[in-house]
Specification:
Strand content: 15-25%
CATH superfamily of one domain: RRM (RNA recognition motif) domain
Strand order of the largest sheet: 2-3-1-6
Structural class: alpha+beta
Radius of gyration: 23 Å
Helix content: 10-25%
Oligomer: single chain
Shape: globular
Length: about 110
């Protein structure tokens, strides 16, 4: 079973997360999601436990429990929803057609004659 764990303390390690769940049974993986730019914890993670009964016991026992001063949110992870793929640069331009708001290619200084 894949378990979502939210409201994690920012200084919690993946090893500590694993240990917390190992008290209830075998843990296959424990991962904390990190910001791809800063590398800082985003405050949530996932734990995989192969035995459903052990996983359900862990969820029941840990949901709402404090860990390093933070009340955990623990439940069965839902499948990831498909989000529309962004079209890249022009996708946020709306009706401006990707021109970034500029009108024409010659605006500016009045030109020389």
């Amino acid at each position: 079973m894949n378990i979502y764990v939210g409201n994690l303390p920012r200084n919690l390690s993946e090893g500590e997360l694993r240990e917390t769940f190992q008290a209830f049974g075998e843990v296959t993986t424990a991962s904390i999601i990190k910001d791809k730019y800063s590398g800082q914890s985003r405050g949530f993670g996932f734990v995989e436990m192969p035995n459903r009964e052990e996983a359900e016991r862990a969820i029941a026992a840990l949901n709402g429990q404090e860990l390093k001063g933070r009340a955990l949110t623990v439940n069965e992870a839902r499948p990831r929803e498909e989000r529309p793929k962004s079209g890249g640069f022009g996708s946020r331009m709306g009706s401006r057609g990707g021109r970034g708001g500029f009108s024409g290619g010659r605006g500016g200084f009045g030109g020389r004659r």
